[in-house]
Amino acid sequence: MLTVVAPGPLATVQDLGRLGWSAIGVTRSGAADRAAHALANRLVGNHPAAATIEATAGGLRLRAGRVCLVAVTGAPLPVSVDGRAGPLSAPFPLAAGAELALGTPSAGLRSYLAVRGGVAVPPVLGSRSTDTLSGLGPAPLRPGDELPIGDLAGDEPVVDVAPVARPAVRPVLGVLPGPRRDRLAADAWTLLTSAEWTVGADSDRVGLRLAGPALRHATTGELPSEGLVPGAVQVPPDGAPVLFLADHPVTGGYPVLAVVRTADLPAVAQLRPGDRLRFRA
User: Fold this and answer.
1) Positive or negative, the Cα torsion across 276, 16, 50, 143?
2) What order do you get walking across the sheet with 2-6 strand by strand?
3) What does the angle CA 162 – CA 166 – CA 170 come to, to the nearest 5 degrees?
């Protein structure tokens, strides 16, 4: 077991998400920064399906119940084991009874802790991910939670450290036209791809609320609810776009102007409130 001593602001169990349930409105969910999640699993030799712990804004503290191999990736932050400095983006052992602590990220927002074998909480609809919008999956971690270590490990890892760039300060995100671009005013696309946008304070794993020029609707009335994908940029009636992340809902009747390319979604997952970004067609 790994025992949660303190979860920090928000810590959840995440894997690659719930595939194949979108027809009944169940979001894929899963790790917000899938690249950092996958790297953590590779560093400890896990199967890609293994679950990790996603720590938002650091503060996570865990105690190992037995000797285990772990790795921390994603937003760069101080890592310590029983008060001694530990590595980032590199596998390292935890002794039985040792306490691992994550500090506050110096950049970015979400960090990932992988343990060799994976976090083996019971799956729900084929996934161990916490969906913060629907409540599916395990609840966000709390002090005293005991997390079983699974057996989703392959060959012993041979990598000492993985060089990873720091999260971009002002990322430029590639976008494709969305399926309802015609429901917005003629200048909406130009405004979206030319203005600088600021991440709002009420942003989370569901999506980022963006402040910038208002994007006007060209028509009145709502659309039937439709499925979404991570990276969809939806425009509600107030004209302030929402960039959806892992725990997104269906559209709720508002048009999707654009979709961020999948390769840029890890950068989106590391944005903090107050950060700025641009879109590039």
Assistant:
1) positive
2) 84-86, 79-81, 99-102, 61-64, 2-6, 146-147
3) 150
Token code pair at residue 146: 């005991």
d(C-alpha 110, C-alpha 127), whole Å: 20
Q: Which three-class secondary structure string do you get for 145-185?
A: CEECECCCECCCCCCCCCCCCCCCCCCEEEEEECCCHHHEC
For 43, residues 6+ apart whose C-beta sits below 8 A from its C-beta are 71, 73, 89, 90, 91, 114, 157, 159, 162
Give which of 115, 127, 152, 122 is closest to 3, Cα–Cα. Answer: 115
Q: Report whether 127 contacts 31 (CB < 8 A).
A: no
> Using one digit for the tens of pLDDT, what is the confidence trace for 43-76?
999 999 999 999 999 999 999 999 999 999 999 9
Among 107, 11, 131, residue whose Cα is nearest residue 61: 11
Write b or e for each residue in 109-145: b if 16 or more Cβ atoms lie within 10 A of its Cβ, otherwise e. Answer: bbbbbbbbbbbbbeebbebbbbbbeeebbbebbeeeb
Residues 227-276: pLDDT tens digits?
A: 889 999 999 999 999 999 999 987 778 999 999 999 999 999 999 999 99
